[in-house]
Amino acid sequence: MRILAIALMLSVIVAACSSDDSGAPNDTFDRRAMLTELADAYIVPEYTEAYNRAANMRAALEAFAAAPNNSTLLAARSALAAAMNQWQRVNTFDFGPAESLFGDLSTEIATFPSNPDAIERKIANGSWTLTGFDRDTRGWNTLDYLLYGTDDDGDNAIIQAFMIGEDATKRASYMNAVAEKIVTEIGQVSTAWNGTYRNDFVSRNGTDAGSATSDVVNNLAMSFEHIKNDKVGIPAGLRAGQSRPEPHRVEAYHSGRSMELARLHFEAIREIWEGRPAGGSAPAFRSLRSYLETVPGGQRLVEETRAQCAAVQQAFDAMGDSSLASLCQANDPRVEALHTELQKLTRFFKSELSSLLGVAITYSSGDGD
Fold it and tell me: Which of 11, 57, 59, 265 is the Cys-Cys partner for 83 at CB 3.0 to 4.6 Å?
């Protein structure tokens, strides 16, 4: 009996040791290889490109500030659009070097909507800081306001604001300072990923809270909910407590590019999950989808997630080239249809993904999902 008891005890110990200490499901998937490929094929090059585009934007804005005219204004807008487009590809990785004492990188440079009245007060005062909690006066959406103005401003009015009057020089200085902060913030994150943080990321290959896999799963879910809740739900008036649409709360309100940016953001999340670049020019990489395919129930979730991603993409396509703000203002049913399809996808990117991979969701979106 003693021998039998010892044998049973040993079998329990062996069984316990056969699973990951963090509670991950029993599998043979190489998470370190997944993290390595994710970092090297996607995160590092995409952050490098984000920095390069931000630097190009800064140069274009400086050229416009030095010589305001139609040509330099169009060049500045084009450079801002290119930089904001690329931002959609990296804002999911808002952890590690993207976190600071003042908040994460998304909060620092991508808060929306902007606050035109507060921006104008800072310009008029001629002195400002860009490190406070008034994040709606800096970042991408502040530049969106400065280069496009309000609904009543034409291009000539915007150009004149940088040429004539006592605030023209202060306006140019403020715009350049905001652009410089964006470049600096993205540059610091890109440098870290190109340096020691990449190795730290790859080495944390468990599934416990604080592991790289946990960071990716949680931030992918948060980034997706940012689209559903902040980029679509709130402007459409579909969040709890709202009684009507609030179209001015879209991203990039002044340029009217909110729909395009939301679409690009979703396509990036889909690509990160799938591990297969949408354009087909960059190398594929092992991903959360690859991981799911190795665990019980994972293939079913992969198929369901792909089907719902396709439904979301169709809902985006149905919008055409219309401004999201104008569609929200008109209570266009296509906006609610998009939000509904995004809502259906939430459980696949959040609860079911984390459950099958044994990764805890460590954040709260506050929307009951």
Answer: 57
Pair 39, 202: CB distance under 8 Å: yes
- 242 lies in which domain range? 31-191+206-357
Long-range contacts of 160-164 (CB under 8 A, 24+ apart): 160/68, 162/64, 162/65, 162/68, 163/68
Render each residue's pLDDT in the chain as its tens digit; 369 residues.
Answer: 444 444 444 443 333 333 344 445 556 899 999 999 999 999 999 999 999 999 999 999 999 999 999 999 999 999 999 999 999 999 999 999 999 867 899 999 999 999 999 999 999 999 899 999 999 999 999 999 999 998 878 999 999 999 998 899 999 999 999 999 999 999 999 999 999 999 999 999 999 999 999 999 999 999 999 999 999 999 999 999 999 999 999 999 999 999 999 999 999 999 999 997 656 677 799 999 999 999 999 999 999 999 999 999 999 999 988 899 999 999 999 999 999 999 999 999 999 999 999 999 998 665 656
Q: Is residue 145 part of a domain?
A: yes
The string of DSSP codes covering 294-344 is TSTTHHHHHHHHHHHHHHHHHHHHTTTT--HHHHHHTT-HHHHHHHHHHHH
Q: Please tell me whether residue 100 adopts helix, strand or coil conformation.
A: strand
Query: For residue 19, is it within any domain?
Result: no
State the CATH number of the domain containing residue 336.
1.20.1420.20
Q: Would you say residue 197 lies in a domain? A: no
